[in-house]
Structure prediction request, 196 residues.
Amino acid sequence: MSPASSNATDDSRDDGFDLVRRELIVYACPTGDLAHQLACYFERTRSAYGPNAAHRYPAHITLTGFFHDDVRSIPAYTGWLQAALRRAARPGQIQIEGMMLELNFHGLLIQSPWLKQMMADFASAAHSLTRSDALRLKDWLHLSLAYDFPPQRHLPLKALARETLDLQAAVGWEMRFYERFGKDEWRCHSIWPLID
Prediction:
């Protein structure tokens, strides 16, 4: 699903100051041939079997959980992410280890100590007095293909994943800093190439 823009706001008050809260998250997103295959897979699965929870998001590896901060903090997060990437050793590695096709979850298994270290560096620098929750870094790296689907959809979705996706296909990666509105609308604030 392509991220969409929105002008929605969530106004709240905190200690007498007006804050405009945003729901924010950091992803690593695929580019290249594999990204095209994933787009085809998501389109085919939605058309043939209806939507599942994975259709609500762009194709991604989750690097942080959702966190909430004032809209005025967004440039600071952009700076902290850019600085962490600048400090990260190059070239980075993001390895697709295989496909997990379980009864209640389908996805690509990802191995990347490099990504984990870069995000730990980001989290150690990202001190915001207006953030309402802690940064939650992800230990299990994966790219979701399908989940929250009826059990009878498991086998056809599994077959379609094997038919559509070539894990040896050329793939690049980008780090993207997103804002989510509601459940299905996205704004990308910044994109940085990770691996071409």
